[in-house]
Amino acid sequence: MLAGLIYALLAGLFGAVASSSAKLSLGASYLKELCETAVRQWTAEEDRLTPSVDTTACEWVHIPLRLVCGLLLFSSNAVMWTFFAKALRHSFSSAQATVTTTASNFISSAFLGYVIFGESHALLWWFGISLTLLGLFILYGSSLKDQHLDVKKTD
């Protein structure tokens, strides 16, 4: 039962990594802007007297970075499906695995969106995820009661 929970949480995390990788690989401007910012900071630390910064390397560097993010997308998606299949196998019900993976994906996506893209979510979004988590706790609580009843019936 605990293994199913861990696998479902990991599946949600890798699903969020896959979606963030897709956003990075398909959105060309973000990686280019990130490259230009890094070059500016690096040159500012190196030589504070040079007012102009040459960021022409970022015109082509973002292309291999996008390819790496595309590879990360496919690999993290494969890992996510592997963990989800294991979660289904080790969980008490498929609903537990599905809801846990979904909740983990939402929370991981919110965290990665904040860290990588600087996104913030509205109060309504947090209310919705709270309802999802409440439903998850109710689902796990009822399955634990069912397990205890099944054990008592077999005794």
How would you describe this protein?
InterPro entries: EmrE-like, TMEM42. Residues 1-19 form the signal peptide. There is one protein chain. The protein is mainly α and 155 residues long. It has one domain (2-154). Helix content is 86%, strand content 0%. The protein has 5 helices and no strands. The protein has helices at 2-26, 28-46, 58-90, 94-117, 123-154. Helix 2 packs across helix 3, helix 3 (58-90) runs antiparallel to helix 4 (94-117) and helix 4 (94-117) runs antiparallel to helix 5. The model has no long low-confidence stretch (mean pLDDT 83).
List keywords for this structure.
86% helix, mainly alpha, elongated, single chain, 155 residues
SSE topology:
Blueprint: H1 2-26, H2 28-46, H3 58-90, H4 94-117, H5 123-154
Over the alpha carbons, how many angstroms does the gyration radius reach? 22 Å
Number of helices: 5
Question: How is the biggest beta sheet arranged?
Answer: none
Shape: elongated
Mean pLDDT: 83
Keywords: Membrane, Signal, Transmembrane, Transmembrane helix
Protein name: Transmembrane protein 42
Organism: Clarias magur (Asian catfish)
Signal peptide: 1-19
